[in-house]
Specification:
With about 190 residues, the protein is of the alpha+beta class. It contains 5 helices and 11 strands; from the N terminus they run αααααβββββββββββ.
Length: about 190
């Protein structure tokens, strides 16, 4: 199955499921999103691959991120995204492209980190506040990710998202350096109630 076929099938299932979860009729979603009813039917039946613009309008109308709308694996505390499941959103004949690696819903502080881990080294972290989410993308080597005592092997090209409100760590148990990009979303702090 090509990237495009996978995207079309994923979007069809997700759009229909999320529209039904919110109790929106086809007409209601069309009105909210400014997208024709016919286009929504075609998307839900996997007969068309909509533009990024239309996909963003639908996600906004449903009150979710484009990543959540395109997501086809939900529900696990740790969600690995192997390279073949990353979603190619746009490409040209000359070879330019954008690929959505992994995403999550985020409100509050959001940070982007670059990591370099030499063989045999690692770093451990205590639990972050409830609702904290991390996203990682390994670009070189193989990262061993520990989340709440469980080990996950992430070879280069793999992306992952996990809830970071448990103890976790990043380790290089291999023979070559690990390089990765990490983003952290922390929920906004709430003022104490009186």
């Amino acid at each position: 199955m090509s990237d495009l076929d996978q995207l079309t099938q994923s979007l069809a299932r997700s759009l229909k499921r999320r529209r039904n979860e919110r109790g929106f009729t086809l007409d209601a979603l069309a009105a909210r999103a400014g997208v024709s009813r016919g286009m929504i039917i075609q998307i839900e039946q996997a007969r068309t691959n909509p533009s990024v613009g239309i996909t963003v309008k639908l996600a906004d109308a449903l009150g979710i991120s484009i990543t959540t709308l395109l997501d086809y694996e939900q529900g696990s505390q740790v969600r690995l995204v192997p390279p073949e499941q990353a979603v190619r959103m746009w490409s040209t004949d000359a070879g330019s492209s954008t690929t959505l690696l992994v995403g999550t819903e985020a409100r509050g502080p959001f940070e982007l980190w670059s990591w370099h881990l030499h063989p045999g080294e690692g770093s451990d972290s205590d639990a972050h506040p409830p609702g904290t989410v991390e996203l990682l993308h390994v670009t070189r080597g193989e990262l061993t990710l520990l989340v709440d005592g469980a080990e996950h092997a992430l070879p280069a090209g793999t992306s992952v998202t996990f809830e970071a409100d448990v103890a976790h760590g990043y380790h290089n148990k291999g023979a070559e350096p690990v390089e990765m990009t990490m983003s952290i979303s922390v929920p906004p702090a709430h003022a104490p109630s009186h």
